[in-house]
Amino acid sequence: MTRDEPVTADPPESAMHTTGTDHVTIWGSNAEDTVAFYRDLLGMPLVLRQPNLDDPSQTHLFFDTGDGRMLTFFVSDDRDADTAPQATPTGAVHHLAFRFDPDRFRTVVGALEADGRTYNEFDRGIFHSLYTSDNDGLVVELTTDVYEIPDDRRGEVLATAQRIREGEGAEYAQAEHLRRALEELDLPVVEHDLPDAATGTGMD
After folding, report:
1. Binned average pLDDT, 10 residues per bin, the chain of 204 residues
2. Which of 28, 33, 37, 197 is the most exposed place for a label (fewest CB within 10 A)?
3. Which element (helix H / strand E) includes 23?
4. What is the per-residue burial (b if ≥16 Cβ within 10 Å, else e) of 191-204?
5. Contact 58, 105 (CB under 8 A)
6. Helices (H), the chain
7. What single-letter DSSP state applies at residue 13?
8. CATH number for the domain whose boundaries are 20-77
9. Distance in angstroms (rounded) separating the CA atoms of residues 163 and 171
10. Domain 94-198 adopts which CATH fold?
11. How many Å apart are CA 44 and CA 17, to the nearest integer?
């Protein structure tokens, strides 16, 4: 694949097409610390707890991320949490990202601070993000869109913003590209009131 490979929301000519993300599973530490972060801080309901069917000595926790997609963990009480940053070699998970309601942005910031969590805040152009880490040092991004994007049109909107960005020679997708993509697709343009922040991209 080259830099010129087309970006499009059209399905590729492939033998199969996925219909969505069912779940992502993380090798976690223990249940108590995992539940404290993902349920009690991030607000994800714990919807299923059972043995790891491949290794019954482990427990398998299922959290609903908010749209019916699951985030699951293999945990064991004999593993202590370790908040040191994780190494991310090729093939490793760099970070997890979860969307939240832009109207609750300041509430989310306050919750992180009340929990004693360090975080970084960035304006990423088409979205606004807070970066923190979980009980095991995995980077977690809490993100919200600058403009309202319908879930069933997200890929189409982003691919259109990409075409507009490339046409302008911009380094990355910015809010203006997203607004113009929404207008081009005859979608409502609803901008969220988010605070100013650095991009954090090294391009400032």
Report:
1. 74 88 95 98 97 96 96 97 90 94 93 96 94 96 95 95 94 95 97 90 60
2. 197
3. strand 23-27
4. eeebeeeeeeeeee
5. no
6. 31-35, 105-114, 154-168, 175-184
7. S
8. 3.30.720.120
9. 12
10. 3.30.720
11. 28
